[in-house]
Amino acid sequence: MLISRTPTAPLRIEWCNDPAQERAIVALFMAQLSPRYISHSELQEQRAVAIGEWRADLPDVLAAQVRHALAQPTATSHTLIATAHVDNALAGIAFVAIDETKRASRTFATLDDLVVDARHQGAGVGRRMFDWVCAELRTRGVERLFLESGIGNEDAHRFFEARGCTPVSVTMLKELGGQP
User: Fold this and answer.
1) I want to staple 16 with a disulfide (CB 3.0 to 4.6 A). Which of 83, 91, 133, 138 is the partner?
2) Backbone Cα Rg of the chain
């Protein structure tokens, strides 16, 4: 049986550029991790060393990524972090990258991560964050939003498909070190 929780306090979603939020963002992200979360972007972006295996120094790597994003002015940045707060507690985060090359036929952004604190899962925080990010990107002229999730992250797949996302590819990996 699925129990739907409703937030009792108002939810505030905004682009974050407050360096004081770095530790809370990293802590929320780290608390929700599982090996199922790893996809090709975690392998390409230095977060994971193998399928199902996070880097040992992931908190430091993630902190550097968050610090860089928070240092950018949100009005012009191509690397954004959205935060959702219930009261003053961080309830969710979304990492977004807007294409800077402008070579694609349509402007696009990538939702790199959408993470909701376990205490707020099932309460609509993720849905509202996703909708808010989409609306914000539209105001910036973005026409497409790409995202990907780990092959075994079925809950995420269902979540995004329910919001109108369509699978467009399968990403594959062949390890070239060692065996042919």
Assistant:
1) 83
2) 16
CA–CA gap between residue 173 and residue 42 (Å, rounded): 13
Q: Against a cut of 0.85, is the pTM above it?
A: yes
List the structure tokens of 56.
Answer: 């040992």
CA–CA gap between residue 66 and residue 56 (Å, rounded): 17
For residue 38, pLDDT over 50 is answered with: yes
Which DSSP letter does residue 2 get? P
Q: Are 41 and 158 in contact (CB under 8 A)?
A: no
Residues in the chain: 180
Q: For 57-89, how does the pLDDT look when each residue is reduced to its tens digit (9 = 90+)? A: 999 999 999 999 999 999 999 999 999 999 889
What dihedral do alpha carbons 49, 54, 59, 61 form, nearest 10°? Answer: 20
Domains annotated on the chain, with CATH: 11-162 (3.40.630.30)
Q: Which of 88, 83, 92, 30 is nearest to 61 (CA)?
A: 30
HEC assignment per residue over 17-56: CCHHHHHHHHHHHHHCCCHHHCCHHHHHCCCEEECCEECC
Cβ-contact 109, 98 below 8 angstroms = yes
Output 54 or 4, whichever has higher pLDDT: 54
Which distant-in-sequence residues (6+ apart) come within 8 Å of 119 by Cβ?
A: 91
